[in-house]
Amino acid sequence: MQHQPIWQPAPFIEPIPAWVRRYPRLAHAVAELTDTECDELDDEPEALAEIACQYVPELAQYGQMVSLPELAPEPAKVMAATLPEVRATDMPGRKREQAGAFVASLAPFQQPILDWCCGKGYLSRTLAVHSHKSVEGYEWNPELVAGGNQLAAHFGDAVQIYCQDVMAQHLHIPANTHGVALHACGDLHRQLLRQGTAAELPRLSLSPCCYHLAAEDCYQPLSEHAAAYGNRLTPDRADLRLAVRETVTAPARVRAQTRRLNQWRLGFDGLQRALRGVDQYLPVPSYPSRLIQKGFPAFCQWAAGKKQLYLPANTDFDRWFAYGIQRHGDVRRYELIRHLFRRPLELWLVLDYGIFLEEQGYRVRLGHFCARSLTPRNLLLDAVKVCGTPRAQHSHP
Ligand SMILES: C[S@@+](CC[C@H](N)C(=O)[O-])C[C@H]1O[C@@H](n2cnc3c(N)ncnc32)[C@H](O)[C@@H]1O
Questions:
Q1: Cβ pair 213, 205 in contact under 8 A
Q2: Model confidence band, residue 391 (pLDDT cutoffs 50, 70, 90)
């Protein structure tokens, strides 16, 4: 809440975010960073927080705030829970390892398993092999359902995938199953939390992702506890998207093209503000990649056409191109500070889920199930229903 002015405004839209006036020394410190330092610090938020806490003292608590237990056992056990490559037909390598780490972090298993939004059943098959329990999967894409069932039959795995929309009204949830969800997006994982607890499933385990994929425009806390604070923090879709924004590791050629286009967009942004005499961002649609070779002036003509703007014949394109490059450097540096708040925001959401589960009578573990390099969405909530326990009472956040 206190630092919302730092993480909320998007620097692409707001040339000088309001926090720059409030923390001028921090803005100066990031302005001095080289591009290489920016790249390194974006991957090392704890190191960045150590620099930034000289100017924003609360950030001294950052490392402690975002540290969580490792739930995965030692590497040999993770390896033992991972499907061998010969059984992992079609399975992307990282998915195979993610599924193995997820399963190893949850072992041992007591109940039959329900894999929520299971895709082609990669996790389902890993679960079936390692847990020796039967696994049912819910997935709404019929091609994935058919492909997943074929693979399971081929390898003789105790997996049955059903074509099922998990958001359907009157959804049947088999009693006494262990509900799991690996990277079910936004409302899909929240549906498991709501429906799974309503069905009093004995165990619920999920690694959430894409918090912003939701029907509601603003996040509605699940827990009564967080709802009591709801009028103080109500992240909207753009805020929720920040929680999952990562540096894109695209090939160098694609990254160079994206950088160039963003510089042009920011250059055009300066030009259109000057032409209209209105200091406001104008969203411009995607630029067809076949036109990129035509250069910056052609981009401005195209964007002006889309916005019904007339560009005077004496438009100084070199000046606005240079402006775009300058703004792009500023955006990169302001975003760096904004990105510091990705993980705290994600943890705020996941802690709401955890408290909700506690309120429903579950004992909850929260930690990482794998390294961030394997997937940045590496949080795991594992909740076991505590029989006969009254709903937990919370007196502290
Ligand atoms: C990000 S994928 C995760 C798949 C799988 N759990 C994994 O980790 O490989 C999300 C899956 O949810 C499925 N899905 C999306 N909406 C759904 C719905 N309403 N009901 C069931 N499945 C859905 C998608 O088709 C997709 O396979």
A1: no
A2: low
